[in-house]
Amino acid sequence: METTAQNTWKSTVAGILNIVAGALSLLGIPGVIVVISTLRSSQFFMDALYEAGLSWEIGFVQTILIVLAVFLAIVGTLSLIGGLYALQRRRWGWALAGSIASILGSTPLGIAATVFIAISRDEFQ
Questions:
Q1: 54: number of Cβ within 10 Å
Q2: How far apart are alpha carbons 112 and 93 in whole angstroms?
Q3: For range 55-84, the mean pLDDT
Q4: What does the domain layout of the chain look like in residue ranges?
Q5: pLDDT tens, position by position, 2-37
Q6: Contact of 91 with 69, CB cutoff 8 Å
């Protein structure tokens, strides 16, 4: 006789939290892109940097922001994938990885999602 684990609300809530955290991370990318494009086009900002002798810093700041945008894209995508797997109660490892990634994007949501995924391990196939 085969026994199945009882489905509880924990994995559903964890999946929703992962999806929300992933969406918030992905929504931050357009803001970072706007800041990157605004840095070069702002004549006032560029003049202030040249006068201060810091014209080299604009490229450094843009590089940091590009890395941030890529990081947000990776974290957001992984959180969304983990959230979908948590809602389907499949592939516990991916759901946990998505929850851990959501800690990096949205700490309170990610911590709650990780706890709920960890304690609902028996629900997954």
A1: 11
A2: 17
A3: 88
A4: 9-119
A5: 455 577 888 889 999 999 999 999 999 999 998 888
A6: no
